Amino acid sequence: ARHYGYDKFPSRLPAGGTVAVRLPHAEKEARLRQLVEALGYDEVISFSLVHPDDAARFSAAEPVRVLNPLSEETSVLRTTGLVSMVQTLEWNLNHGQRDVCFYEIGKAYSVAGGEPEERRVVTLGATGTLREKSVHESARTYDFFDLKGAVEAVLELFALEHVEFRPLEESPLFDPFNATAVFASLPGQEEPAQLGVCGQLNRALTQTHKPVSYTHLTLPT
Prior knowledge:
The protein is of the alpha+beta class.
């Protein structure tokens, strides 16, 4: 080709035998991004590999272990998006960013019946001041009810039936007075299923992580 001359070859696209098809959840996730960004959240994208201790701290699910990890700190796949979200919020707090609202749409992984499985999840996290002081309004910090309102808006997007916010049973993660479990009826299921939880970190965890509010929901398919 070099001897003949690259300039002598006609320019054309290679023939393709496949047709591009949009993923079934692409349109709804695009609408979800528009919704939460309109609510004031900024998107983050984090690594799925975490430390085993962090995976165990935030979930009782059995993690998927990597056969050839680069280090112990990245040897398992996250079992919940909360791990990455709390780490992201803590990093920002440690670097002077006190008022942040983040969201992430990604995957969480676990072992069920001896086999690895993955599910798509949306995680919201926020801390600090929601509204700064102005001549018209006083300053207000982000609280549990702001988070619950964002969750309700997300659930409305999926047009789920029988959405319920139930008292959260004793949890090693959340403040019992500022947390709730999220239930909804899913297609093909008679009883409402728990989609996730939202609330504020409890005092035990705030000794390790900065106090933040966050939620974690499994996305309906």
